[in-house]
Amino acid sequence: MSTSTAEALSETTLLRFATAGSVDDGKSTLVGRLLHDSKSVLADQLEAVQRASASRGADGPDLALLTDGLRAEREQGITIDVAYRYFATARRRFILADTPGHVQYTRNMVTGASTAELTVVLVDARNGVVEQTRRHAAIAALLRVPHVVLAVNKMDLVGYREAEFARIAEEFTAYATQLGVPDVTAIPISALAGDNVVEPSAVMDWYGGPTVLEHLETVPVSHDLSHCHARLPVQYVIRPQSAEHPDYRGYAGQIAAGSFHVGDEVTVLPSGRTSRISGIDLLGEPVDAAWTTQSVTVLLQDDVDVSRGDLIVPSKDAPATTQDVEATVCHVADVPLTVGHRVLLKHGARTVKALVRDIPSRLTLDDLSLHPHPGRLLANDIGRVKIRTAEPLPVDSYADSRRTGSFILIDPSDGATLTAGMVGESFAAPEPVKDASDEDGWDF
Q1: What angle (nearest 5°) sits at the alpha carbon of residue 90, between those of residues 144 and 5?
Q2: Collapsing DSSP states into helix, strand and coil, what is residue 297?
């Protein structure tokens, strides 16, 4: 890469986006078409795909093979794992997560979309909105993904008819709006033929909107989290105890949100001890201030007990610590999550013992109604849970911070991830449920 090209890319914004959709809706083909038509595929990669396609008797290159890298994926023609791809145009850099469509792999969609600013939900124009489409829309809303693109694919198989596209777009948009998705853009495409993916379609002159790539390049993305609640999860305590640094004690981590300045009064949670920032080291050099996504080492004026998993926050803007967490969750394990289930809760770098006290409701995807007190959540269910933790946690609402408002539940017996949780209210929030068990009877 030339110096001028590198400088140009450094000035472009970064968009993290995920693709989702039902099986055989064409996600991998769309991603392959994006990479191919935007000239983001290396010559040897394209040659390998052409050879693999020819060995299968295909007339041309199967662009889905650019992302389906697992042997089982190529044999079955489906996506199983999340495939991450990195590419760039003159206007923007992209990190793409191609997620599976099978219901049993919905958990992978949660992983891929958890850091995305945009989700592309594909729909087969012949089938329209199906249950998995609604599930993916619900997860996008649950994860607070600010932008959703509905890509109505395989328009070539319905004669490129505007009425088919309009019907599907209206149904999906109404459903996503009910979920609280703030921005939905519908685009008719044919990933196989390349219509409206990178280049405008010559056979859908009734559509006057952007292509998929044009929308990805121009959708507004804000990475300015410097004015959000400042949060620094401590990942490591640095204490060299060397002759050069005999008394050095630094607290290292990546700033999750906001900014920190030398001289700021801060509080360490969950202990509640306070001090002031005496220094900030960034890449081995002292700086006066640091902000979101920078990995720093913070030094404090006082000899405060700080450990991995603690949270450093401004004293004037500290979240409350609690042992009672109420959240909306997506259950991702085959083993059901039940009331009374003993689990480990991982929040940032801290892992604590916890107990599932109640499951107030489960979301019904068809009509977005709430099934009260189901008693358990099965794989891919979305619902509300009340959790009691063995130690107090400093949690934010997920609506305020996707980093410090999220957690996962872990099976203590084998370390498997059970559930992905988002603290606070959401589209699935039921009316508060009052039980006698809320008052006492728990051993934490």
Answers
A1: 120
A2: strand
